[in-house]
Amino acid sequence: MKTLFKGLLLLTCVLGTWILLSQIDYLTFFQINKAKSTAEKNIGEMIWDNVKRTEDIIVNDSVTKTIDKLLKPLCKENGIKRDSLKVHIIKQDEVNAFALPNGHLVVYSGLIEASKNEQALLGVLGHEIAHIEKNHVMKKLSKEIGFSVLMSITTGNNSGSVLREIMHTLSSSAYDRSLEKEADITSVEYLQKAKIDPAPFADFLYDMSLDNNLPSALSWINTHPDSEERAKYILEYIKGKKEKSKPILNQSEWTGLKKAVKNHED
Question: At what angle do helices 136-144 and 177-193 cross, to 10 degrees?
């Protein structure tokens, strides 16, 4: 009787599971995911095409190769495909960087010039890469603009106005506080795994929040509130952890990078 009862119980569980699974519309589920992936790719490319027409893009090797040299160890040690990140350096005095859909990472020359060292710069870039890797970009756009509106631009409906709204949303407004903190801590973890000292990232946040000389140009700080608080929780997170940091660039390369972006002309 016990064996019969166990057999009936097992059969009931199997049938119940089968009935439950049969109710799931896998085709629709996977089509939705595929649509989201396709939409993200299309939206990212449309935004970047629009940016290219209006901004001064720095493409000389002395800048792009040096940024690539900085990012390679960060990507390698954290399992991030370097080729999945499309990094663009734009000649702009604003201290800013922001992520676009489909792996686009926009970095303003003002950020490079304002960074005291490579660790500070990598902390900011790591923060934006975390937004990409954690899918924060599309979460933010879906919440603030709406996925159906995002989908509409891929068909050409009101694409101009929606693209402008997307650019404004991504470049001049913060993510939810929880997503910002997740990006901060993830950036710190990226740096630690790559044996890069994250303390200068906290110093950057603190110093920039106190800098009253360029209030209108500190876009990355202005759109990321509570910078002093963020610096504190980063320092608390790394407290007691000895960081063996080895520079990626020599002093000549670092100085050359800053000079190249500063002196860039159209």
Answer: 170
